[in-house]
Predict the structure.
Amino acid sequence: MAILVAGLTSGALYALATIGLSLVWGSMGMLNMAHAAMLTLGGYVAFTAITTLGLPLPLGFLAAVAVGAVAGAALYAGIVRNLLRNDKPLFEANVMIATVGIGIALENAILMGYGGQPLRQPASILGAIRIGPMTLPYQNLFIIVVVILMMIAVSLLLNRTRMGRAIRATAQNRDAALLMGVAVNRVYLQVLMLSGALAGVCGILVSSMTQLSPPLGNDLMLKAFIMCVVAGLGNLPGAVAAAFGLALLEAFVQYAFGARWGFPALLFVVIAVLIWRPSGLFGRAEIRRM
Amino acid sequence: MSVPVLDLSQIVSGYDVINVLKGVSLTVGRGELVAVVGPNGHGKSTLLKTISGLVPLRSGEIRIDGGTMAGAPHLVAASGVAHVPQGDMLFAQMTVLENLLMGAYLAPDRAEMQRRLDEVYALLPKLADRRGQIASTLSGGERRMVGIGRGLMMGGRILLIDEPSLGLAPLIIEQVYGVIADLCKSGRTILLVEENPARLEGLADRVHLLDDGEIVWSGKPADLMARDELLTTYLGA
């Protein structure tokens, strides 16, 4: 049971990180390599809001969400919009390289601002609930509940709102969306802001399980990329399923064979999937849109 | 004479260094169906894409109801141009209903959206039966109907239809052209691109023959069908 809870907690974190990545890839054909740094930024913003400014926990969350969304908007306005305007055929490669640079710069800015020493994330809930012989930490349950709520919110946004329909339409057929009157550049901005906001929340939740440090998001993003590839880039429900499935696999492998075998097991799965189904378990063969 | 709904004046457009359209001029009056025929690869689809903004206009002028229009496709759509592109270009993972609602993306309110939806279902009742079906699972003919329905949902001033018969079985083509005939009777303004001029008799008010990016002949469909030398030279008939 403890392994199951640990696996579900990791799965929830992976799912949240994966949704942010997958949303951006699915609608724009953009691998946002700065997502890890945006996630880290969210953790530090919550730290500053709660510790330095003395704001209550919910406002710390809101601050991380807001700054994440603003970071997404800045990424669009400063980089993505110009790359889209300049050379669309090379957009996918150019934006990947550009966001690697942005990610490194942001991580180093955080390092300069806060230092390299690990900090404790105040946005965490202490204590645990005991059910018979089992101990379930409140923090794990909190993470699972928050991520489930976030996924429901994203699902409602994408399926029940005009903005969400425009995002899905742009992802499925950009030219047809344009012909229907969708301002796709505005959709791209909205998607990056949404992804940034999700990264903000994810940063708080991850750092509440570990500690705050400038490279906080890197490990999670590496695994989130694996989940995205296994699911099929751009497939949101598939990404969530892959995140939970692989997190549980990782937890069980770590329990059975030792912690050091968890990540190699994930790599083995992604290699097998790439050989067996290059478009991912739930992916479609055609994915280029720009 | 009243202002035409669509007025193209010497439009030039193309891809990279190539001009595909080399000065095309034509008009479409209110309630008219004007057709453009021509061989493959000579600019018919590019013409519609230029009007709807998918291919940038290099020179010339496009007027809708007398107002100059050119720019990004979403702005063109907002000015009343509904483009039913070649090959449907549906949102493959959306349902029929969601595809139709995307057509009404710019509708001012829900009431107007519902009014258009009722109108489309009245014209294409099969779409009402299929409303919950995912678009990628539809047959070719059904997909074409959804494409036309989605174009109608835009509530535009003019409907641009690109080769509605492409890739369909003869029986389905008849059904599609039956719908287009109904649209004509209801007074819609349509610019239709078609490869087979025989389908335009009794349907189109005027037809333009487009060859190598230029209009080389204009007249009534029946006159075109009577000109064997044109059919042989330009359409391989």
User: Anything to note?
Assistant: The interface with chain A takes residues 52-54, 72-74, 77-78, 83, 85, 89-94, 98, 101-103, 105-106, 150, 154 of chain B (CB under 8 Å). Strands of chain B lie at 6-15, 18-28, 33-37, 57-64, 67-68, 81-84, 158-162, 190-194, 206-211, 214-219.
